[in-house]
Amino acid sequence: EKGGWSSFMAKEVSEEPEAVANTIRGRIHEGRVEIPELDGMDDFLADIDRILVIACGTAAYAGMVGKYALETWTRVPVDVELAHEFRYRNPVLTPRTLVVSISQSGETMDTLMAVKYARSRGAKTLSICNTQGATIPRESDAIVYTHAGPEVAVASTKAFVAQITALYLLALHVGRVRGAVDPMVAVEAVTELEAVPGKIARVLETEQARIEQLAHWMADTRSVLFLGRNVGYPIALEGALKLKELAYIHAEGFAAGELKHGPIALIEPGQPVFVVVPSPRGSGEMHKKVVSNIEEIRARGARVIAIAEEGDVAVLPAADEVLRIPLAAPLFEPLLAVVPLHIFAMGLAEAKGLDVDQPRNLAKSVTVE
Ligand code: BG6
């Protein structure tokens, strides 16, 4: 079933382009996002006053990315919460709250219990799930399936990009229903989304071998830090999670702006730091700040591996290595920037001789609370 790949994970990373393309398919009509599964929900979606996203692990990071798109296009306030934290604090839920759960397996017990709880408290629940007929979608009021195809490796990769894709489609659908997103803006967003599979394929083509080489050189590394800002922040968290899960080394993700409030104390000579650099074409100011973060940690001896868009020359003097992603509108960068991090974690685990499909102590779907 691995079809010539060294692991299911390697196969599944190679399938990231199709995971996005298949999740989009059938949901865009003449530049408008129309999710057929949400037919008949317009009145409710027009009336919601809050969106709460609940999930665990990688799916929660997809939710954090989705928050930016949901707020941008729907203008509804969005909170993202770990499913296992949500139920134990008497959360505020009303009939106008849309609770969006995200789960690849659809069986994660923490997420399932949170969905049931939200429903019992009168909220409407929508499940973003990769497994047809799983328990969480069955227990939800509405379902938007991701079509990443079966994911076998324990660490989620293609499902992650499919989850972000589904959240963006949901944001554009709800934004349209509410009249919150300008139709021209929506058309541009759809064009960007449709271009993502080709751009991910390009990252795999141009950067995969280099990243694997880098991972090989770094096989003895004991700690890696990840920095990101805005939509790059959850990507930094995801990069760190993958490295812990697969390579069993200490890894932490930080919001780049938080650096000076603590984490910079960790920087000592030789410390590897991945930095997800926002496009200078988005917020030029944010880009400058991240570049100056790189300079600050470099001055303290960090070894910086930047993930930056093609043509961003400002990062060149600052970083030790630059991994390139194709140009995309800022909201779409996470779908590209995560790919080098998936490859890196897998490459480092392989360089250490570890089983990337079945990391120790982990299960693909955790069906206990
Ligand atoms: C963890 C898996 O236990 O569950 C992660 O190891 C996954 O890879 C998380 O992200 C959530 O799983 P699911 O199926 O609910 O998306």
TrEMBL record:
Occurrences of domain SIS (ranges): 41-180, 214-359
Top-rank taxon: Bacteria
Keywords of the record: Aminotransferase, Cytoplasm, Glutamine amidotransferase, Repeat, Transferase
Keyword Repeat attached: yes
Name recorded for this polypeptide: Glutamine--fructose-6-phosphate aminotransferase [isomerizing]
GO CC terms, sorted: cytosol
GO molecular function: carbohydrate derivative binding; glutamine-fructose-6-phosphate transaminase (isomerizing) activity
Organism from which the protein derives: Microbacterium testaceum (Aureobacterium testaceum)
Interval of the full protein contained in this chain: 248 to 616 of 616
Catalytic reaction list: D-fructose 6-phosphate + L-glutamine = D-glucosamine 6-phosphate + L-glutamate
